[in-house]
Every structure is written in structure tokens, then in C-alpha cells.
Amino acid sequence: MQASNLQHKLNRLRALLSEMHSVLVAYSGGIDSTFVLKVAHEQLHEKAVGVTAVSPTFPSIELETAKRVAAEIGARHDIVQTDQLEIPDFTKNDAARCFHCKTDLYQLLGTLRLERGTAYMVDGTNMDDLGEDRPGIKAARKWGVRSPLVEAELSKADIRILAKDLGLSNWDKPAAACLSSRIPRGITITREKLSQVEEAEAVLHREGLRHYRVRDHGEIARIEVGQDEIVLLMETERRTRVSTKLKELGFRFVTVDLEGYRPGGVSLG
């Protein structure tokens, strides 16, 4: 029953994208936007283009993944530059931060859409996202961005199953978020803080960890990793390497959050 229901949802997604005729996909390289790009490319071919906006908030490791997976799909992939640090309402880092970030993205994509005569902008929002406080979704609606995964009633679990079936190499990729989410609300976002966090998380990536965040609390780096990876992180040699390298990046103290990694787990201060 589940398989037939999933196939029905996939067929609905294919029909929706076909009816759009041409799309720009807000493509980050995460599994949701990758899945949209994959199906859009299958249905629309060269009329489906993935667009990745690169800025100081976007980790370079995510850009490399986005490039690789788009090439695997065979879809056109355009990279555009932006910089949310030039937006005061973004850098002040209040509850509307994501709204200002996504507004910047969709304004950029909207300009491209008009220049190219593309019919629609689409994103990777799925059904699970609707139950969360997502200012970015409000920005998407304001700028006329469609969410075909929601329209096809696809959940995150559905997407991973279908993505694996379609042969996407990143079907089990952990969720990612922009680097600004590592900085507590009310603390001004700066280029230096973003760079420090990005380099700190690169250390964890090189250590073989998959689910991780480094939360910036001034002198303190608070590490979150998956519950099943805490033991791995705490192996003596690895723990020493991580602590040493993060202190070299400018943190005075390095801590591990015993509750482990949790999406949206940034502290409020």
C-alpha cells in the first residue's frame, strides 16, 4: 500500500512540474531541492535549471556537493553570487533573519526568471516543513515561489525513499542549514563569525562525523553531533585533535552538548 501511495505522489509531482513548462529550482544540494531538480530535469530537460546562490552563509562543502550532484543528474546548474551581510535587517539576527535571507534569494531568482522568461520558481519545501516556524516559507509565498513537494503531499521520509529509488547519491544526506543558524539570536552576524564556524565544522567533517553543528557562543564552541556519534567524538585522540584545532581557530573553550545534534537547536542566547 505504501509503495503504491508513494508512486501516486511521485506521479503527481511529475505532472505538476510538467504543467509548469519551465522552472528555476532554488537548489542548495540538500536532498529536498535535489529531488525537485531531478524530477524537474526528467520532465522538462533543459527547461529545468538549478540555481545555487553562494554567499558567506553557504558552506563551501555544500557548494561542492551541489555541483557534483547536479552533474550526476545532468541538469543545468547555475551559480549566482549574493551577500546577506550587506542587509542590516539580516545581520542583526532577530526572529526575522530567515525571512530577510530568503527574500534576498527569491529577489535574485525572480530577476533571473524574468530575464530568461522562465514560468516558475520552485523550492524544496516539503510537508514536514509546514509544521515548523519557517519565516523563509513566508518569503517564498510573498515572491510567488511554488513548493511542488508540498503540492504533491510529499514528506521528508517519502522523499528519501523515492530519491534512493531514483538513484540520487545524496538520498541519505543529513540536513544542512546556513551558517548564520549557528549564531545565537540577537548576536550580530559577521563575516568573521561565519568563517570561524565554517572552519570548525570542516574539522568535524574531516573527522568522519556526519551529523554535526558548531554553535558559536563567543569564546565557547558548543559541538552537537548525532547521539550515535558522541562516543566516536569522545575517543581520546579525536577529542584532542578537535579541541586543539578549534582553539587554533579562536575559541577559548570547546564543549560537547550531551543532548546531541538536533535540527533548529541554536540557542536563543
Give the termini separation.
46 Å
The CATH topology label of the largest domain is Rossmann fold
CATH class of the largest domain: Alpha Beta
Kindly estimate the percentage of residues that lie in beta strands according to DSSP: 5-15%
Number of helices: 11
User: Regions with pLDDT < 50 over 5+ consecutive residues?
Assistant: none
* DSSP strand tally: 7
Mean pLDDT: 94
Spatial extent as radius of gyration? 19 Å
Q: Estimate the global geometry from the Cα principal axes.
A: globular
Spatial ordering of strands, largest sheet:
3-2-1-4
Helix/strand order, N-terminal first: HEHEHEHHEHHHHEEHHE
Biggest β-sheet strands, sense, barrel: 4 strands, parallel
Outline the structure in words.
There is one protein chain. It contains eleven helices and seven strands. The protein has helices at residues 2-20, 31-44, 60-73, 88-91, 97-116, 135-142, 148-151, 156-165, 191-206, 230-233, 236-248; strands at residues 23-26, 48-54, 76-81, 120-122, 212-217, 220-225, 253-256. Strand 1 (23-26), helix 2 (31-44) and strand 2 form a beta-alpha-beta unit. By secondary structure, it is of the alpha/beta class. The strands form two sheets. A four-stranded parallel beta sheet has the order 3-2-1-4, with helices on both faces. The protein has a three-stranded mixed beta sheet with strand order 5-6-7, covered by helices on one side. Helices cover 47% and strands 13% of the residues. The longest helix has 20 residues, at 97-116. The chain folds into two domains: 2-165, Rossmann fold; 179-256, 2-Layer Sandwich (GMP Synthetase, Chain A, domain 3), CATH 3.30.300. Helix 1 (2-20) packs across helix 2 and helix 5 packs parallel to helix 6.
